[in-house]
């Protein structure tokens, strides 16, 4: 069944109804200048395991999400990890795995004061770092990754942190998320989107995906957002996740995306609520 696009008018409010293949339906309603996603009769949610809005609609939705998030979280489009050079950011990002950035920022000042260069880390033994990072979870494996990464950088990259994805992920304990953080924040290079737990939660609730695999989520978001914004997407999703869209609870009434998010529990207060029901549209 081919995709269909219907354009209806109810009173003075235009309603765009998107009909997808199979039994997947979604509605894009423009009301009082805002775009609102809802479900037909509240029975079917938009999106499949990888999100099944038509590409043009998904990108329009992505642009609106980005615009609203930038207005709210403009001052948070950067990493919260304190650093003064690419190596310090790499170390801090390795330490941040399953730890809060605020916790990492408490241990790195003394660590960087004791070990000032990549060579000094390379000359150390993993256990030498334990005292500085023992307040963090998995500190033994993190210390090992830092020391082995320092040795690889000294031996294979001339003492400089590699500025490409291939080089970074070749280091011990460095995956795509860590590499994306370093490339975007230390070098201004967008090779992908760093996906953390906040990004997983937000991406699913916004309907871009219905999976929790970071690689699949990254691939979908890269397709929907322009490359120049990839670094910002990660920061903005993290900011939203920390603020109101937490994994354990969501606070939709305070969310800047409450009018367009398909998972929002915010209820519209329409001047003429009958418009929703005559079209068979749930107000949620």
How is this structure best described in words?
- The protein has 284 residues and is an alpha+beta fold.
- It has a domain at 86-187: Hypothetical protein, domain 2 (Endonuclease III, domain 1).
- Helix content is 44%, strand content 9%.
- The protein contains twelve helices and four strands, in the order E-E-E-E-H-H-H-H-H-H-H-H-H-H-H-H.
- The chain has helices at 55-73, 86-95, 101-114, 118-122, 130-133, 139-156, 165-169, 176-187, 197-205, 214-224, 230-243, 274-278; strands at 4-10, 13-19, 25-31, 34-38.
- A four-stranded antiparallel beta sheet has the order 1-2-3-4, with no helix packed on it.
What is the topological layout?
Elements lengths: L3 E7 L2 E7 L5 E7 L2 E5 L16 H19 L12 H10 L5 H14 L3 H5 L7 H4 L5 H18 L8 H5 L6 H12 L9 H9 L8 H11 L5 H14 L30 H5 L6
Antiparallel strand pairs: 1-2, 2-3, 3-4
Helix pairs in contact: 1-11, 2-8, 9-11
Could you write a compact summary of the structure shown?
The chain has 284 residues and is α+β, with helices and mostly antiparallel strands. It has helices at 55-73, 86-95, 101-114, 118-122, 130-133, 139-156, 165-169, 176-187, 197-205, 214-224, 230-243, 274-278; strands spanning 4-10, 13-19, 25-31, 34-38.
Can you tell me the CATH class of the domain at 86-187?
A: Mainly Alpha
Which structural class do the helices and strands define?
A: alpha+beta
- How much helicity do the residues have? 40-55%
* Multimeric organization: single chain
**Strand arrangement across the biggest beta sheet:** 1-2-3-4
CATH architecture of the domain at 86-187: Orthogonal Bundle
Could you describe the largest sheet, including whether it forms a barrel? 4 strands, antiparallel
CATH superfamily of the domain at 86-187: Hypothetical protein, domain 2
* CATH fold label of the domain at 86-187: Endonuclease III, domain 1
Proportion in β-strands: 5-15%
Mean pLDDT: 81
Number of helices: 12
Measure the end-to-end span: 28 Å
Could you tell me the number of beta strands? Answer: 4
Given the C-alpha coordinates, what overall shape results? elongated
């Amino acid at each position: 069944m081919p995709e269909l696009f219907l354009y209806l008018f109810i009173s003075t409010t235009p309603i765009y109804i998107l009909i997808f293949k199979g039994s997947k339906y979604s509605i894009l309603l423009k009301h009082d200048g805002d775009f609102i996603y809802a479900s037909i009769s509240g029975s079917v949610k938009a999106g499949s395991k990888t999100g099944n809005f038509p590409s043009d609609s998904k990108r329009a939705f992505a642009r609106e999400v980005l615009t609203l998030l930038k207005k709210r979280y403009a001052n948070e489009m950067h990493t919260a990890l304190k650093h003064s050079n690419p190596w310090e950011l790499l170390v801090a990002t390795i330490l941040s795995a399953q730890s809060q950035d605020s916790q990492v920022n408490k241990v790195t000042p003394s660590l960087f004061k004791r070990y000032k260069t990549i060579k000094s880390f390379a000359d150390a033994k993993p256990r030498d770092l334990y005292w500085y990072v023992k307040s963090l979870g998995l500190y033994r494996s993190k210390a090992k990754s830092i020391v082995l990464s320092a040795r690889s950088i000294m031996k294979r990259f001339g003492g400089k942190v590699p500025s490409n994805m291939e080089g970074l992920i070749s280091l011990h304990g460095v995956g795509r998320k860590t590499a994306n953080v370093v490339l975007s924040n230390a070098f201004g290079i967008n090779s992908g989107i760093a996906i953390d737990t906040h990004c997983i939660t937000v991406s699913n609730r916004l309907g871009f995906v219905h999976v929790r695999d970071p690689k699949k989520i990254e691939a979908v978001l890269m397709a929907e957002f322009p490359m120049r914004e990839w670094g910002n997407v990660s920061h903005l999703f993290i900011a939203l996740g920390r603020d109101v869209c937490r994994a354990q609870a969501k606070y939709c009434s305070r969310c800047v995306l409450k009018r367009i998010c398909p998972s929002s529990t915010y209820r519209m207060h329409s001047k003429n609520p009958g418009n929703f029901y005559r079209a068979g549209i749930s107000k949620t």
